[in-house]
Hints:
The structure is a single chain. By secondary structure, this protein is α+β, with helices and mostly antiparallel strands. It contains 4 helices and 6 strands; from the N terminus they run αβαβββαββα. It has a 6-stranded mixed beta sheet, sandwiched between helices. The longest helix is centred in the first third of the chain and has 34 residues, at about 5-35. The termini are far apart.
Amino acid sequence: MGKKEEKKQREKERKEREESILRNGGLLLEKRISYFDCRYSNPFRGFSAIELQKATDNYSCENRIFEEWGRFDWYKGCLEGRVVCLKKYDYAEPEWVSNEIAVAAQVSGHKNALKLLGCCLETPKPTPVFEFPMNGNLHEQLRSNPT
């Protein structure tokens, strides 16, 4: 591939990222405003697609912790020295994903909900980033301590 083709490819990728950010960010903001009347109790930050790829070793199979076939995959990774899990969607509408992120942001302060740390808007569908549940999931907790 020549230098011109490489430059065109990089420009195309940059434009696609910008379009994703505008589309996904607009949807997310719209959902958060309409659901919660501009009250954001749990702020979260944005991550780049490159940060998520590095954190998950380019979404390697070894880092996949759960797969809902055809819908989404959960990956374990490390961001900023913190163990995280990412929910990467396969076949979901960006509006549905934005909906889920808006609700997760609101309930992430609850002790039985995963804490939403942020999301990536550069990907075709937003990718939420959660704190990794070091004590296992709620189902495992209930089974190990039935009282």
